[in-house]
Known about the structure:
Elements: H1 3-13, H2 32-41, H3 54-67, H4 71-83
Amino acid sequence: MSKYGDLIKxxxxxxxESQKTSEPDNQITINTENQSSDLAEQEQMxxxxxxxxxxxxxxxxxxAKEQGITVTSVIVEALIQKFGEPENQGTKKP
Length: 94
C-alpha cells in the first residue's frame, strides 16, 4: 500500500484523543420513542409553486418581514379562507 494509504487506514482505525466524543452543551437530544408516533400523524409537506412578477415578490417579501410573518403563512391562510380545508383532515401550520 502507498504511504498515504497507510496513513488513511491508520487514521480510520484510531480515534484521535484530542477530539471530544460528548455532545455540545447546546445540543438537544430527541426522544426517539415519541418521534415514531409523531411521524405517523404528520402529513407529507410538498411545494406549491406560483410565478409572480419579481417586483411584487420583493414587495410582498419585505412587507411580510416587516410584520414578522412568512409569505407561506399568508398564502396558506388565503387558500384556506377561499377554499376551506378538507373535511377529514386539518392542516399543519408551516
